[in-house]
């Protein structure tokens, strides 16, 4: 292995989103330098190494460890800097970020490919993004001829297609499903969606239906509580208003109490119609006018009687 200068890897490991790309490029670099034997050591047999050979192996191993550490992002390096050899660091990163199934990443890549659109992007830039997504998907799903793996991927594609078109309200359920080591079947996913839909309905939809049902019951109870106002008139009920004592409407539709219900009403605009004009003059004024008329009539009658007495006295 060449140790004259430190080898830099082309990809920086930031987490699970780019672990597969980092692992593939790192393996290619280490194999080209003849240093992959420190990640996957070959059995040496029962013959122990000499002190000089053990020292050389340790130096090479530390050089590989330095190469791996230089390719880690700062937060990842701070979290796993306790590893003391190259194989320990590689295995730790694989256990943490290298999920064998990696269902979440497969789903994200397939959804990104499905939603990818060129729009105003240059074709070369767009094609590069398109090709990188397909390359990552091929790394996540390497080519195979095994029938069992192909059938499993076909079932996974059905589940992925269903999850992509679900309502955003099911995002938590989608994350829960994709966290599984093995993706459930389509029937199992549908069963979980039905349960989740029941929970959402219990908190939202069903509550609204209960409120509407109570409201309808409330209206029915209050609308027909005073049954004395409803009298049979052939096939139609005869309705009497409790306020104005006029037939044809109920108290809640009385124009006197609710002037905005008048036909072609301009209630609320600049040309408001005074409901008092529609109702007519106040009854007190009517009573006063009637009394005045009766007073004037009696006065005229009295004046007539007085005139007759005066005339009779003149003739006497």
UniProtKB/TrEMBL annotation:
Span list, region Disordered: 279-316
Bias type Polar residues, positions: 294-304
Protein name: Retrotransposon Copia-like N-terminal domain-containing protein
Organism in which the protein naturally occurs: Noccaea caerulescens
